[in-house]
Amino acid sequence: MLPLVPEPTYRATVGSMEVDLPIVQLDDDLAIALLISVDLGIAFCERAAAELVASLGELGIELVVSVATMGIPVALEVTRCLGLDQYVILHKTPKIHLADAVAEPVRSITTAVDQRLLLDRRRIPVLAGRRVALIDDVVSTGASAAAALRLLRRVGAEPIAVGAIVTEGQLWVDALGEDAAMVHALGTLPLFRPRGDGTFEVREG
Fold first, then answer.
1. Would you kindly state where each structural domain of the chain is located, as residue ranges?
2. CA atoms within 13 A on the CB side of 159
3. Burial class (CB in 10 A: 0-12, 13-18, 19+), 30
4. Tens digit of each residue's pLDDT, the chain (205 residues)
5. CA 54 remoteness from chain centre
6. Distance between CA atoms of residues 84 and 153, nearest Å
């Protein structure tokens, strides 16, 4: 049996925690430190959510919204920390109850294909007129967050904050424009450039 080659990792600071993330190459010029919220455990998500809620301050958040699937564990814990019961999930995979969904196009850095955010129309009354926090695991290009904010405003919600475990790179700042000021995160991840020998260097900008 061939020996296992150690996977390159990046040690990220997430609030008061540190976590080693695998570095995954996306193309010849780009690699990312991959944070998978569903693999980090309940205790991690509970602590991250509590620290994220503390960073949000007293905003009068009435509802938490997230994007399936990686944002769900964090959004659930944020909802609990805020003492709320209801939360709303925007989906990317068509399901039977989303046949007549409100849709918004989006393209993510980790999927490389065009998708749509889908909101079950039966959830619109829960959103309309409510002060909403959009919670996700990572804000990277800002494409998913921008699409989610557009969709939420279309159905009458009032987004007042965007919370994430981490931001990644700087593309999200331009993508979100004025909405970038709403972003609260527990840490930042750099982008990486493959060296061609199995190692990586941090990309500038």
1. 9-202
2. 26
3. middle
4. 555 556 899 999 999 999 999 999 999 999 999 999 999 999 999 999 999 999 998 999 999 999 998 999 999 999 999 999 999 999 999 888 898 999 999 876 555 667 899 999 999 999 999 999 999 999 999 999 999 999 999 999 999 999 999 999 999 999 999 999 999 999 999 999 999 888 999 987 5
5. 18
6. 21
* Parallel, antiparallel or unpaired: strands 183-185 and 158-168: parallel
74 to 2, 44, 137, 141: CA distances (angstroms):
38, 9, 7, 19
Beta carbons of 113 and 143 less than 8 angstroms apart: no
- Global pTM value: 0.92
- Encoded tokens for 187: 């840490």
Residue 83 exposure: Cα atoms within 13 Å on the Cβ side: 2
Q: Which two tokens stand for residue 70?
A: 């990686």
Structural element, H or E, at residue 161? strand 158-168
Q: Is 104 exposed, middle or buried (0-12, 13-18, 19+ CB in 10 A)?
A: buried
Amino acid, single-letter form, for residue 36: I
Kind and range of the H or E element at 201? strand 200-202
Quote the CA–CA distance of 90 and 80 in Å, as a whole number.
Answer: 19
- Residues 175 and 108: their CA atoms lie apart, in Å, by 12
Q: Which positions ≥6 away from 181 have C-beta within 8 Å?
A: none
What 3-state DSSP class applies to 65? strand
Q: Does domain 9-202 have CATH number 3.40.50.2020?
A: yes
